[in-house]
Amino acid sequence: MAEMNFGGVIETVVTSKEFSLEKAHEVLKNETIAVIGYGIQGPGQACNLRDNGFNVIVGQREGKTYEKCLKDGWVPGKTLFPIEEACKKGTIICMLLSDAGQIAVWPKIKPYLTAGKTLYYSHGFAINWQDRTGVVPPSDIDVIMVAPKGSGTSLRTMFCEGRGLNCSYAVYQDASGNAEEKTIAFGIGIGAGYLFKTTFQREATSDLTGERGSLMGAIEGLFEAQYDVLRAHGHSPSEAFNETVEELTQSLMPLFGEKGMDWMYANCSTTAQRGALDWAPRFREAIKPVMEWLYLSVKTGNEAQIAIDKNSQPDYRDKLNKELEDMRNKEMWQAGVTVRTLRPENN
Ligand SMILES: NC(=O)c1ccc[n+]([C@@H]2O[C@H](COP(=O)([O-])OP(=O)(O)OC[C@H]3O[C@@H](n4cnc5c(N)ncnc54)[C@H](O)[C@@H]3O)[C@@H](O)[C@H]2O)c1
Ligand SMILES: CC(C)(O)[C@@H](O)C(=O)O
Ligand SMILES: [Mg+2]
Ligand SMILES: [Mg+2]
To answer: Domain containing 301 — which CATH number?
Structure first.
């Protein structure tokens, strides 16, 4: 573990330099890892663990996702089982069903969480809001978490490129006395770039805030607001899209991703810098009340309850797909389809 200075605050991080893959193998050598659920995180984590040489099986119900398991080389009866059978065989049970799905299957899974086993999560959701999820693990098992800070799709592609995705980790219950070491070993196994320590509570609240905020919800809201204003004032779709989205993702985001916001600013005109420096605090002040509202809605469990209620409905997937389709069909994102065809690499 290394102590590092994050903007003046010292925090502990773990990388494969301090905790090698060999050490992870040693820690997990007697474990059968049962990955339950094969949505987005399931494939990323299961395939990375398998490629890293761990003993992995998958538990997935039959249906469309089951076909994906077969395509990825999981073999029925050998490494692919119905959920309950995988839970019976596994010593580390990885809850990688959707957060709502985890509630539905909890009564079926609980009997297999016998003394000495480990219950693993990639989110603090089920435990942090256990008054709403009903997930109360038995006291004689370890309960641990490694939460990749990015999509399971990126976890896999970055692993295949020889890079790692950063992850947070936490121990909720340490029955074995060895839970933290096991958690870090697991993080190294799934291909974490580096691991930073958190709690189930802090991960759950920061994650739900981030995805509703700047990572997903706020960014779409910001784009729509600017695009709509430009269009209402007579700018063409291509101009509005280029000034709202395309330039950001293609030119400016890579600059601040690489060396920070001041570096991106420094590579723009002095006109742009003057205006952006003046307007950033105005946007901050306008947006902050919405951020406070969001954080409170997450912290009180309101957002978790909405996710549980909506995503437990039998037709939740169809409804989500319909909402994504509506987003895709907006003029802004349709303009984006054409703009992307004009990128040099697509010509
Ligand atoms: N999607 C991500 O990239 C991501 C990133 C970090 C953490 N997480 C966390 O990882 C966990 C898994 O998320 P995900 O996005 O991969 O899941 P997902 O929403 O894609 O889950 C789909 C899986 O759950 C199964 N499922 C859903 N309802 C079920 C039910 N009632 N019975 C049986 N199976 C059911 C599906 O068959 C499928 O295997 C969650 O805790 C999530 O918060 C996800
Ligand atoms: C990839 C995200 C947004 O970071 C994750 O939190 C999720 O829920 O999918
Ligand atoms: Mg999330
Ligand atoms: Mg997240």
So the answer is: 1.10.1040.10
In a domain, 263, yes or no: yes
CB atoms within 10 A of CB 98: 18
Q: What is d(CA 248, CA 203) in angstroms, rounded to the nearest whole number?
A: 28
What is the model's pTM? Answer: 0.96
Q: Does ligand 1 have an atom closer than 6 angstroms to the CB of 207?
A: no
Q: Is residue 156 part of a domain?
A: yes
Which phi-psi region, left, alpha or beta, contains residue 260 (left: φ > 0; alpha: ψ -120 to 50)?
Answer: left
Taking only the tens place, the pLDDT of each residue in 15-62 is 999 999 999 999 999 999 999 999 999 999 999 999 999 999 999 999
Q: Is residue 205 part of a domain?
A: no
Cα 296 to the center of its chain, rounded Å: 21
Please list the residues that pair with 57 across neighbouring strands. Answer: 34
Give the total number of structural domains in the chain.
2
Q: Ligand 2 pocket, 207 CB below 6 A? A: yes
What gap in Å lies between CA 334 and CA 241, rounded to an integer? 10
123 is catalytic: yes
Which residue's CA is the nearest one to ligand 1's atom 29? 101
